C-alpha cells in the first residue's frame, strides 16, 4: 500500500527526517510515534505530496508521489494536525467542494455527508460558515471531507487532538472499518496509550531517525527503548 524508502528531508544543516524506511500494508493501522519535533509531521507532508524531500522514494500502490502525484492523491486523504479550511465557506459548501475535486457523484456525496455529519453531530452546523466553528468542529469537518471519496490510504497527523471522547471513539471505529475493507491508515501520535490500544504496528521516530518498528508488543518489549517511552509518557501528561 505505502512504501517509504530512505526518505530524507533537510532544513539547513538539520535532518528533519533521516533515511527513513517504512512499509504499511493493506489492512494495517500503523502508528507513527514520537515527541514533538521528532519528524512526524515532515514525514506525513512528504508522503502526502505537499512537501518536497531531498532523497528517497514514496510509493502508493506502486506509484511514485514524485512522478505520478495525481494518481497517488486520488487514492489518499490527508488530515493535518491543524486543519486549514476555507473559513468563508459553509460546512456543506466545503464538503461539496471536496467531492467535486474527487469526482464523487451527487448520490454518493449526499449519502456520505448525511451519514458522517449525523454521526459526528454536525448536521445542524453545516449551513454555518466554517469561521464560526470551534477547533473540534473543524477537525470533524476535516475528517468527513477525508472520507468523502473513500480513499484507500488515510494519513493523519495527531487526529485525536481536539476531539471529544465520543468523536474519538467514532474515528477509531471508522479507521478500523477502512482497514477491514483493505485500506490502510498511517497516523502520528505522541500518546502511547492511543497507539497501544489501536495500532496493528507502530514505528518510533526520534530526531528524524527510525528507532524501532513492529507490533506494539515487540516495541514495548525492547528494553533499550525505556528512555524513549519515559520521554513520551512525560510529554503526554
Description:
With 237 residues, the protein is of the alpha/beta class. Helix content is 38%, strand content 26%. It is built from 9 helices and 10 strands. A 6-stranded mixed sheet has the order 6-7-8-3-9-10, sandwiched between helices. Strands 2-1-4-5 form a 4-stranded antiparallel sheet. A hairpin with a 2-residue loop joins β1 (2-11) and β2 (14-24).
Judged by helices, strands and strand pairing, the structural class is: alpha/beta
Major beta-sheet overview: 6 strands, mixed
By DSSP, the count of extended strands is 10
Note poorly predicted spans: none
The ordered H/E elements are EEEHEEHEHHHEHEHEEHH
Portion of residues in helices?
25-40%
- Basic shape: globular
- Fraction in beta strands: 25-35%
Oligomeric state of this protein:
single chain
Strand order of the largest sheet: 6-7-8-3-9-10
The average pLDDT is 92
Q: Termini, distance in Å?
A: 34 Å
Q: Total helix count?
A: 9
Rounded radius of gyration (Å): 18 Å
Amino acid at each position: 500500500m505505502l512504501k517509504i524508502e530512505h526518505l530524507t528531508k533537510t532544513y539547513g544543516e538539520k535532518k528533519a527526517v533521516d533515511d527513513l524506511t517504512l512499509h504499511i500494508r493493506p489492512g494495517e493501522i500503523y502508528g507513527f510515534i514520537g515527541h514533538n519535533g521528532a519528524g512526524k509531521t515532515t514525514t506525513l507532508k512528504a508522503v502526502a505530496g505537499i512537501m518536497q524531500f531531498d532523497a528517497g522514494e514514496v510509493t502508493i500502490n506502486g506509484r511514485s508521489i514524485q512522478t505520478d502525484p495525481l494518481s497517488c492523491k486520488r487514492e489518499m486523504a490527508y488530515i493535518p494536525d491543524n486543519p486549514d479550511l476555507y473559513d468563508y465557506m459553509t460546512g456543506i459548501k466545503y464538503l461539496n467542494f471536496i467531492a467535486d475535486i474527487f469526482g464523487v457523484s451527487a448520490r454518493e456525496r449526499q449519502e456520505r455527508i448525511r451519514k458522517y455529519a449525523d454521526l459526528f453531530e454536525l448536521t445542524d452546523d453545516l449551513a454555518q460558515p466554517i469561521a464560526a466553528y470551534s477547533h473540534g468542529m473543524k477537525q470533524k469537518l476535516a475528517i468527513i471531507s477525508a472520507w468523502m471519496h473513500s480513499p484507500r490510504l488515510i494519513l493523519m497527523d495527531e487526529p485525536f487532538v481536539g476531539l471529544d471522547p465520543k468523536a474519538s471513539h467514532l474515528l477509531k471505529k471508522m479507521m478500523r472499518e477502512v482497514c477491514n475493507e483493505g485500506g490502510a491508515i498511517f497516523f502520528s501520535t505522541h500518546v502511547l496509550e492511543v497507539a497501544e490500544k489501536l495500532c496493528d504496528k507502530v514505528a518510533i521516530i526520534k530526531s528524524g531517525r527510525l528507532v524501532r518498528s513492529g507490533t506494539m508488543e515487540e516495541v514495548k518489549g525492547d528494553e533499550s527503548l525505556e528512555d524513549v517511552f519515559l520521554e513520551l509518557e512525560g510529554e503526554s501528561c
